[in-house]
Each structure stands twice: as structure tokens, then as C-alpha cells.
UniProtKB/TrEMBL annotation:
InterPro entries: Cell_wall_metabolism_enzyme, Dup_hybrid_motif, M23ase_b-sheet_dom. Keywords: Signal. Residues 1-16 form the signal peptide. One of its GO terms (molecular function) is metalloendopeptidase activity. The keyword Phosphoprotein does not apply. PANTHER family: L-ALA--D-GLU ENDOPEPTIDASE, PEPTIDASE-RELATED. Residues 170-264 form the M23ase beta-sheet core domain. This is Peptidase M23. Pfam families: Peptidase_M23. The keyword Signal applies.
């Protein structure tokens, strides 16, 4: 009896050693979460549901692995944590239902072709490559800095845009209304990995914060940082404008983890 008790005790001690703690305050599509892990081991998070999986790579030496509840998941999904190739945590969770705004617009569209189409494909590949980069942690704060002095949402994350009756795109960031020239702040410390004019997003800044986290600032009238430069949380990276495909001055703010889009308004409320 005593031996059995001791064995049970040892087994539970071993389980406690490998157990990682989960932080996931919201379960809406686009919610950010993380596991607190032992920084000495390599970890990854796998989210699966709706017939596909999303992999979030951890960085050795970091005590957190971040992940996102991907947009497009409905109902139940599986959340797993792997240490090396061993699954050390697994749980079935349910996505909280959320309605996304649908905006229907009728416009004369010009099909993208030739050199312009090639440019758009090239720029999209560049962004995908940047957002997939997982580098060591570059921030300290546990809260995002608001990207503008005042946050007034004009188009939320996940809004569906239907152009000429055809489902064309999903809005992968949050649009904030602001006057032209309003300062735009870095949401966290990090390295500027892109600071240039792109076809759709106009003057664009992307910051790599490490651990797979990137933020994007689009349609700027002016960019005030350079590629390769390190910026501090709250530092001005540019000014609000209407460059690229835009109908008026606003900031499009995006938040990505391992190239999976998160809802900036949820992330602004969460702990990192
Ligand atoms: Zn936008």
C-alpha cells in the first residue's frame, strides 16, 4: 500500500514537472493565447480544427509559446502543446461564436494583370516570409501600447468585404479613423523589418517583436523609421495617411503570430 502511494506520488510529481500553464482569456476567432513553458526545452503549439492545422513554433530560451485561435475555426478545436515530438498537453476547446460585419460595395474593378499582378504576388510573398520568421524575444512589456493617441475603430478585424456580389476579402486588421499626420506608435519594442511602399497597404511598416510576433502599420503618409532599426514600445514609426488602396486617412493595424492573424482589439486587452 505504502509503495503504491509512493508510486502515485512520484507519477503526479513527474506530471507536474511537465505540465505547462495555459493563458487564453478569450476564445473568439483571432484571440491570442500562450503556454508558459520550461525555457530549456523546444516547444510548439498545434491548433487543429475545420480540417486543417496551424503550427506555432516556440523559441528555445523563451518561457512562453504564443498562438492564435485562427479565424475560420468554428465549433470545437484541439489545442496541443509539444515538447520536442511528445505531446505534453491536449485539450478540446470550443470557439466562442462571433458575428463579423459584412460590407457590400459596388465598384468598377480593374483586374490585376501583367507587371502589377507580379508586383502584388511578390509583395504578398515578402510579407508571408517576414511573418513566418520566429526570432528571439525583443520586448519586455506585457501590454501593447495603443498605436494611436486615440483609438476609434472604423472597420473591425474579420469584416467580410463583398465586392460586386463576390466575396473578395476578409479584413485582416483593425482600421482606426484618424487625421492625416497623427503620430503612429510602435505597439511593442522590436526591429523594423519592412519600411517601404507596397501596392495595397501603401507606406507600410512591419516590426518583428520576436517569438513569431509581428505588427503592421499601413497607409502611412510618412514613414519615420528605417529597415533594420530597433524601435522602442511607444516610439513614433510614421504618420497617418491614405497611401495605397485607401479611401481616406486611417491607420490599418495588424497583429500576426507565426503568420496567423490575430484581432488587434482583443490583443490590446490581453496580457502578453
Ligand atoms: Zn484596413
Amino acid at each position: 500500500m505504502r509503495v503504491l502511494f509512493l508510486l502515485l506520488f512520484l507519477a503526479s510529481a513527474a506530471a507536474a514537472k511537465t505540465s505547462a500553464s495555459l493563458y487564453l482569456p478569450y476564445r473568439y476567432p483571432g484571440s491570442l493565447g500562450y503556454f508558459k513553458v520550461n525555457p530549456k526545452s523546444p516547444y510548439k503549439v498545434v491548433v487543429s480544427g475545420a480540417g486543417r492545422s496551424w503550427v506555432f513554433k516556440g523559441v528555445e530560451g523563451s518561457s512562453k509559446v504564443y498562438f492564435v485561435v485562427p479565424y475560420g475555426l468554428k465549433g470545437r478545436f484541439k489545442l496541443s502543446l509539444y515538447r520536442g515530438r511528445r505531446e505534453v498537453f491536449s485539450r478540446i476547446l470550443r470557439v466562442s461564436p462571433k458575428r463579423f460585419r459584412v460590407s457590400r460595395i459596388w465598384v468598377k474593378t480593374r483586374p490585376l494583370k501583367g507587371a502589377l499582378l507580379r508586383r502584388v504576388i511578390r509583395e504578398n510573398r515578402l510579407l508571408r516570409r517576414i511573418f513566418s520568421q520566429v526570432t528571439p524575444k525583443k520586448f519586455r512589456s506585457s501590454k501593447l501600447h495603443p498605436p494611436l493617441p486615440r483609438l476609434v475603430v472604423s472597420t473591425p478585424f474579420g469584416a467580410k468585404r463583398i465586392i460586386n456580389r463576390k466575396k473578395r476579402s476578409i479584413h485582416w486588421g483593425t482600421d482606426f479613423r484618424a487625421k492625416r499626420g497623427t503620430p503612429v506608435y510602435a505597439a511593442l519594442s522590436g526591429r523594423v523589418v519592412l519600411a517601404r511602399k507596397l501596392y495595397f497597404t501603401g507606406n507600410t511598416v512591419v516590426i518583428d517583436h520576436g517569438l513569431g510576433i509581428h505588427t503592421l502599420y499601413a497607409h502611412l503618409s510618412r514613414i519615420t523609421v528605417k529597415e533594420g532599426q530597433f524601435v522602442k514600445r511607444g516610439q513614433v514609426v510614421g504618420r497617418v495617411g491614405s497611401t495605397g488602396r485607401s479611401t481616406g486617412p486611417h491607420l490599418h493595424f495588424g497583429f500576426y503570430v507565426d503568420d496567423v492573424k490575430a484581432d488587434p482589439m482583443l490583443v490590446l486587452k490581453e496580457q502578453l
